[in-house]
């Protein structure tokens, strides 16, 4: 393997848990500050998320109708100060619950030392994905970070924005039509990195959007099964504010039918099992192998 392309959310860290808990805490604080019930705030967040096409647009709270009603026409920077308490709660809970899965940092370091090119791929906007890699201190292991193009207007505080700027040429943008699970996305990444798709490994937690996409592109696929293990009640919080429209939901159902029965080349229950996959190319006509089984077959 010359190239490892890894999904970020629920592959390197538990995004569902940290984001749901941080978001829930922020909404509770907003509810008290604005004297608005939480259900109304969840509804307002959902409307805004659908408008901008993501559930994780930084500072969406500044645009809430209830916030604008309370604070009038303050600038985004002034609103950020007015909402300091709710935003502080989000940051505190994010810091408390955002952690790499066990063995991730050690595995990334080992792969980097072995000369494997590491790139990240995410459908989060660049600012969020970069912040998390920096916060978790693993940014330096990646050659590039591939993100979807977005309309994010930038941090309300210009000084903070400049401090969070990525290294030159680190962020590479993917056109919206190539978003998951379009196999052209992975072929585009391989082309940009100068690697044959047959010499690449993709790791992700979604059988439909990650594994189905990788197998269609001819890229070896490792399903991060551990990334599907989280509190379902926390997932329900995210569903309440999802940016998905009715059309998106219908599209997802079609994708499930399209990729029904798709099998990963490998199924891993810990990120360090990627190390056991190196050098072992799965024959797609064979049954799904766990990384441990692959290692045994090579011994």
Notes on the structure:
The longest helix has 20 residues, at 15-34. This protein has helices at 15-34, 38-52, 65-71, 76-82, 84-97, 104-113, 126-135, 158-163, 183-193, 207-217, 232-240, 246-258, 274-277, 291-298, and strands at 3-7, 117-121, 144-148, 171-174, 200-204, 220-224, 266-268, 289-290. Helix 13 links the parallel strand 7 (266-268) and strand 8. The model is unreliable at 280-299 (pLDDT under 50). It is globular and about 55 Å long. The chain has 299 residues and is an alpha/beta fold. The protein has two domains: 3-14 and 101-298, HAD superfamily/HAD-like (Rossmann fold); 18-96. Strands 4-3-2-1-5-6-7-8 form an eight-stranded parallel sheet, sandwiched between helices. The protein contains 14 helices and eight strands. Helix 1 packs antiparallel against helix 5 (84-97), helix 1 (15-34) crosses helix 11 and helix 9 (183-193) packs across helix 10 (207-217).
